[in-house]
Design goal:
Elements (H helix, E strand, L loop, with lengths): L7 H16 L3 H18 L5 H16 L3 H17 L5 H21 L2 H19 L4 H16 L3 H17 L5 H16 L3 H18 L5 H16 L3 H19 L7 H14 L2 H16 L4 H18 L6
């Protein structure tokens, strides 16, 4: 009422209202407010102005939340076109281009178009390397993202190369994080499927080292890493090592979930398998006693089926029919 609607302050207020609606998940109202702000900004500023580009990016983000990926990509590409048409060559400008390419790649990933996602992420990586050099945290992050996309495209060899390079960079710059752990576990899984158990174990040991350093041992994910390593030692026939690791997994699971949680069943059952192979009947009976107590703490019918199919038949391997 007091001001002409073609006013930058009005646009700024509309954006604040839009932001509040966004955080309250009122996405339709947020879009309405952002578009109102954008209409004002386009009459005041050039399309390459940072305020206009910020509005485009915010609108794209909301469409992405609504899984309207084509609309999201349309606004992200407006930002990219404006940035590329600028004569600006500063480091900051180049990194804005890289960030926009990364956002477009992620939108294509969510849309399920993995090939296009790889193209944009590789272009992002190229800029990051030019600006920051080969051994930079954002370079490692892009390599990880390219690796996940290549896995979706069944290009496991190239994905492994990208993961290894990303892990090398993070180790060199002392910026190892959850991405490193996830990548190393993924590499281990690939090597395992290919039959390279020793190489897979090396990857898991490295993942465990990083996890212990940055997150500690008393964590569900650390237990999962140890469990996978124990399974590999079991496959290799190194039963005592496998059993030792599984005991550690049980301790972690007890600290994380309690002593009678269904998430410990897989660990107890594998321990039972090893005790069968070792001929340790007292240990087997104690282990499957724990398994049965966990099953009996649930009332659902499927757990009763699991007892018969996954547990009780194993007693027949070492116990006489009369004793059974």
């Amino acid at each position: 009422v007091l001001y002409c609607p073609i006013n930058a302050d009005i646009a700024a207020i509309q954006k604040k209202i839009a932001t509040l609606h966004y955080f309250m998940k009122n996405y339709d109202l947020a879009l309405k407010a952002y578009h109102a702000a954008l209409d004002v900004e386009l009459q005041i500023f050039h399309e390459q102005d940072s305020k206009v580009l910020a509005s485009y990016s915010s609108i794209a983000k909301i469409h992405q939340e609504l899984r309207e990926f084509d609309l999201s990509l349309m606004f992200h590409e407006k930002v990219l076109k404006a940035l590329r048409s600028s004569n600006e060559i500063s480091r900051k400008h180049q990194m804005e281009v890289a960030t926009t390419l990364n956002r477009i790649a992620y939108a294509h990933y969510q849309k399920g178009d993995f090939e296009r996602a790889v193209e944009f992420q590789q272009e992002c990586l190229h800029i990051q390397r030019e600006v920051n050099g080969d051994d930079a945290k954002d370079v490692a992050s892009s390599l990880f993202q390219i690796a996940w996309l290549l896995l979706r495209l069944d290009s496991s060899k190239m994905a492994m190369e990208a993961m290894l390079e990303a892990c090398r960079i993070q180790k060199k710059i002392h910026k190892e994080d959850r991405q490193s752990i996830t990548a190393l576990c993924q590499l281990a899984s690939i090597y395992h499927r290919q039959g390279f158990l020793d190489v897979a174990l090396v990857c898991y040991f490295e993942a465990a080292r990083i996890h212990e350093t940055i997150l500690g041992r008393n964590h569900e994910d650390f237990g999962n890493i140890l469990f996978n390593m124990a399974k590999m030692y079991y496959e290799k026939g190194e039963l005592e090592i496998s059993l030792h690791m599984l005991r550690q997994v049980l301790e972690i699971e007890a600290q994380c979930f309690g002593t009678r949680d269904q998430r410990s069943l897989r660990t107890l059952i594998l321990i039972g398998e090893i005790e069968i192979d070792l001929g340790n009947l007292p240990g087997l009976m104690e282990t499957y006693g724990d398994v049965l107590r966990i099953y009996q703490s649930f009332e659902k019918e499927e757990y009763k089926v699991l007892v018969n199919d996954a547990t009780l038949w194993r007693f027949e391997k070492v116990v006489t029919p009369a004793a059974g």
